[in-house]
Amino acid sequence: MNNWKMVKLSTLCSRIGDGLHGTPKYVDYGNVFFINGNNLKEGKIEINDDTKRVSEDDLKMNFILLDSFSLLIGINGTIGNMAFYNGQKLMLGKSAAYLNFKSEINRFYYFYFQLPRVQKHFYDIATGSTIKNLSLRSLNDFEVPFPNDDEGNKIVSVLSSLDNKIDLNNQINDNLQDLFLELIEDK
């Protein structure tokens, strides 16, 4: 890492922005979810019963172009929560920012942003006394190490493999818990 150059995050992205700075009209049914930083967990967008929905019309009026290189990050309250965009129909709220990377280097930075010193840096530069807010300007200006493609790909490969194993172990644990509960209920 000593020979990697430092670059502004903005040079690696085609665009950095955040979601709607207001309250959309929520609907009871629909397939467009209103996503904030609290929906971003461990690389995934978590949709639950409390996740609000918005209309297709609201989505069209507030459309943000996201793609497979987009990384979502919590910037208000839930600073540093992250998820990859995987084609979901969603509209972002103001507490979620999007980093539209120019390549799949987004996977490298997903892991890099989780380092404790980077998370601490985000928290330290955030403003606000009650609810911390990480500004878009600070994200744009954030200097990050830039690995060459080969090194970055190797690192992502190893860390992705470990994440996949963790996911599999979590699934196994969930299945074992379900099995255990079924055994208890049968008694």
Short description:
With 187 residues, the chain is α+β, with helices and mostly antiparallel strands. Helix content is 38%, strand content 23%.
| CATH architecture assignment name of the largest domain | Alpha-Beta Complex
Distance between the termini: 57 Å
CATH 4th-level superfamily of the largest domain: DNA methylase specificity domains
Strand order of the largest sheet: 2-11-8-9
Mean pLDDT: 90
CATH fold type of the largest domain: Adenine-n6-DNA-methyltransferase TaqI, Chain A, domain 2
Query: What is the share of helical residues?
Result: 25-40%
Number of strands: 12
- The shape is globular
Provide a count of the helices.
6
Query: Low-confidence segments, ≥5 residues, pLDDT <50?
Result: none
Would you state the CATH class of the largest domain? Alpha Beta
Overview of this protein structure:
There is one protein chain. The chain is of the alpha+beta class and 187 residues long. It folds into two domains: 5-147, Adenine-n6-DNA-methyltransferase TaqI, Chain A, domain 2, CATH 3.90.220; 148-187. The protein has six helices and twelve strands. The chain has helices at residues 9-12, 56-61, 106-112, 116-125, 136-141, 149-186; strands spanning 5-8, 13-18, 26-27, 32-35, 40-41, 44-45, 53-54, 70-74, 82-84, 90-92, 96-101, 143-146. The strands form four sheets. Strands 2-11-8-9 form a four-stranded antiparallel sheet. Strand 8 (70-74) and strand 9 (82-84) form a beta hairpin. The model has no long low-confidence stretch (mean pLDDT 90).
